[in-house]
Amino acid sequence: MTTSPGLTATEAVTYAVTNGVAWLTINRPEAHNALNKAVRDGLFAGLRRFNEDDDAKVLVLTGAGEKAFCAGGDLKEMADDALRVPPLDFVPQLGRNITVDKPTIAAVNGVALAGGFLLAQTMDLCIAADHAKFAISEVKVGRGAPWAAPLPWMIPPRVAMQILLTGDPIDARRAQEVGLVNEVVPGDQLVATAQRVAERIAANAPLSVRAAKQTVRLVAELPLAAAYDEAERIWEPVYLSDDAQEGPASFRDKRPPQWTGR
């Protein structure tokens, strides 16, 4: 499947690794990085590649250009296809239709609308350029946003309600205030900041990082007592790992730790 300009899925979404950080970039700036089929296929392929890439410890998702992270679904394609209910695998939703155990970061370089909001929401962290805007604009085009179900767990419910009911955008600073965004930086510092944060994560013990990622969402799915029990199960292999001995030993010996992930 190709995009309208003739890009293949691997061209519509590029993959590159820098110092242990995989950069997955939506490459349709002329269409505000909208989610046509080639982009959707490229995103799934890129995430699977990241899962299999032992050299990549953290993934950063961004969009080409300075105007758009992702403007959402390609409405022209939707109209041509008379799309009704999108299938569950229409676009990647981490933790729902694709599993990614390693950490992920959204580097939002412009507007994140509809499906673009979905992508930013589904990453573990979100760093935004100061000119970025976020909106769930489905109510303005008569479409749906079932993927927004976790949003009231991430931000205050009344803020989520306003975003969903009005379809109006919020700017990066407001998104940070309500907890949707971790950091807001000038646009020309976005790539460097995302790389720096990703490298800090990548330098940590990989088993601990993965267990921490699993732990954060437990109380969204389980009662607190059950969440504690599940957290004990998740972390026990970490305590029993070689890395759990390496950490204290490296501190004692005053040397950098040498993580093996075992």
TrEMBL record:
Gene3D superfamilies: 2-enoyl-CoA Hydratase, Chain A, domain 1, Lyase 2-enoyl-coa Hydratase, Chain A, domain 2. InterPro entries: ClpP/crotonase-like_dom_sf, Enoyl-CoA_hydra/iso, Enoyl-CoA_hydra_C. Keywords: Isomerase, Lyase. It catalyses: a (3S)-3-hydroxyacyl-CoA = a (2E)-enoyl-CoA + H2O; a 4-saturated-(3S)-3-hydroxyacyl-CoA = a (3E)-enoyl-CoA + H2O. One of its GO terms (molecular function) is isomerase activity. The lineage of its organism: Bacteria, Bacillati, Actinomycetota, Actinomycetes, Propionibacteriales. GO terms for biological process: fatty acid beta-oxidation. The keyword Isomerase applies. The keyword NADP does not apply. Coiled coil: none annotated. Belongs to the enoyl-CoA hydratase/isomerase family. It comes from the Bacteria. This is Enoyl-CoA hydratase/isomerase family protein. Pfam families: ECH_1.
